[in-house]
Design goal:
The complex is a heterodimer of chains A (112) and B (111). With 112 residues, chain A is an all-beta fold. In chain A, 0% of the residues lie in helices and 52% in strands. Chain B is mainly beta and 111 residues long. Classes of the chains: A mainly beta (112), B mainly beta (111).
């Protein structure tokens, strides 16, 4: 039972590079979410998706792009990474809207 | 936009003491959820409260949702070292699952 997985777990990149963080869930949950966690800010929603091909912005979407061509995958792309995007990124999923979310293990991203 | 404030930011207790963290939203919520994150780990869903004035218990943990559906609390009775971690509340103002998280309360338990 893999649940929800994220890759890579750790990533170091340079300013201006494109980076894609992967998220995969095996539950066939309809809803998927991307959060970033920074000291002093808690968890902030970047993007969410209600189903394949349906995505919407969260609280802090600037500089990020998402897609969801398949229910089980929800990749997050940083088109041109900036130092301010250094953070821990968590993917989450839920079966329905407005119920508890299940989080992946996170990706620790450092932008130099 | 919706804001969720959580206090205290830190709490140090001796094992066996009680612990409470409080959460306040700037807007009325559809539901509120609580999560626990162990050091170096990921948030783990604990519970969801939906009804005004709702109280739920999970062993030593008691969760309350205010009458106005704008505040909530988590109380742990007789803390144990396994309770160590950060406790987050997360408010859902729309019921679409777009959560606004509080900043969390970091709980340290001294044996």
């Amino acid at each position: 039972d893999a649940g929800i997985t994220q890759s890579p777990r750790y990533k170091i990149t340079e300013t201006g590079r494109q980076v894609t963080l992967m998220c995969h869930q095996t539950w066939s949950h309809s809803y998927m979410f991307w959060y970033r966690q920074d000291l002093g800010h808690g968890l902030r929603l970047i993007y969410y998706s209600a189903a394949a091909d349906i995505t919407d912005k969260g609280e802090v979407p600037d500089g990020y792009v998402v897609s969801r061509s398949k229910t089980e995958n929800f990749p997050l792309t940083l088109e041109s990474a900036t130092r301010s995007q250094t953070s821990v990124y968590f993917c989450a999923s839920s079966e329905l809207a407005g119920v508890g979310q299940y989080f992946g293990p996170g990706t620790r991203l450092l932008v130099l | 936009g919706q804001q969720v404030m959580q206090i205290p930011q830190y709490q140090h207790v001796q094992e066996g003491e009680d612990f409470t963290t409080y959460c306040n939203s700037s807007t009325t919520l559809s539901n509120i959820q609580w999560y626990k994150q162990r050091p170096g780990g990921h948030p783990v869903f604990l519970i969801q409260l939906v009804k005004s004035g709702e109280v739920k218990k999970q062993k030593r943990l008691t969760f309350q949702f205010g009458e106005a559906k704008k505040n909530s609390s988590l109380h742990i009775t007789a803390t144990q070292t396994t309770d160590v971690g950060t406790y987050f509340c997360a408010g859902d103002g729309t019921s679409y699952g777009k959560l606004t998280f509080g900043q969390g309360t970091i709980l340290t338990v001294h044996p």
